[in-house]
Every structure is written in structure tokens, then in C-alpha cells.
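Lab manual, section 2.4: Encoding a predicted structure.

Procedure: take the sequence of the chain (131 residues), apply the prediction step described in section 2.3, and record the output as C-alpha cells. A sample record is shown.
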Amino acid sequence: MNRTLGGSLFIRNGNKYDYCYKEAIQCLLEFCDKVVVCTTPTDDGTYETILDMASLNKKILVRGIRDRDWNYMHFHAKYRLSIFTNYAIEMLDTDYVFNLQGDEILDPSSYEWVRKGINEGGEGYLCSRIN
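Recorded output:
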């Protein structure tokens, strides 16, 4: 059975911090049926870059977070990451979700294993991060 897989990613100030968010999005596009990128308007051009990417690829959906919502949140940064990652996931109607952060990519040799895993119907999977 072919199940659907959605990718999710949250990024803020990706250019400012030199994150590989564009590569992360491209990575997700390689093995996901659709990709949601949750982001906030910034002055470093990250938001505009993501909108440009989405205009060129219909598999990319953008969930924009207003600055006032970002600033209103009185949570520590690690909680914000969870909250806004969940905002991205809420837009997906896929059977499974693969979440990456804006400074991560998945080794291309893993793509087929991810797809095999979801098609076999497992409850969930964990991947190790190598820095």
C-alpha cells in the first residue's frame, strides 16, 4: 500500500544564521508528497526566498506566522519551535509526517528507506542525527 508522506520544516532567519534551509526543503521534496514550511517574516530575506520556492513548486505549502504572534509567545525558544512545527503539521493531510529542522538534511541514500518504512505501516520511526 502506498501511503502519503508530508514533510514539515520551521525556519526563522535562515539567511542570517546561514542555515541550509533551502537544501532542507529540497531534501524533503525528494521523498515527500508535499512539504509545509512554517516561517515568520524577517529582514534577512528568508521569508521571501521560501515564497519564491513555493511559487515554483506546488508541493510546497507555506504557513506564515505573523511577527506579533512570534513576539507574543512568552515561551522559551525551544517551546516556540514545537508550537510552530505543530502549526506546519496541522496543514498536512498525509498519513505520515517527516519533520526536519532548518539546519538539517537527510542523506539521499535514506529516502527509499523512509518510503519503505511508511508503506510497511509502522507506528513511527526515529532517525539519528549526525553533526
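Check your result against the sample. The chain has a mean pLDDT of 86.
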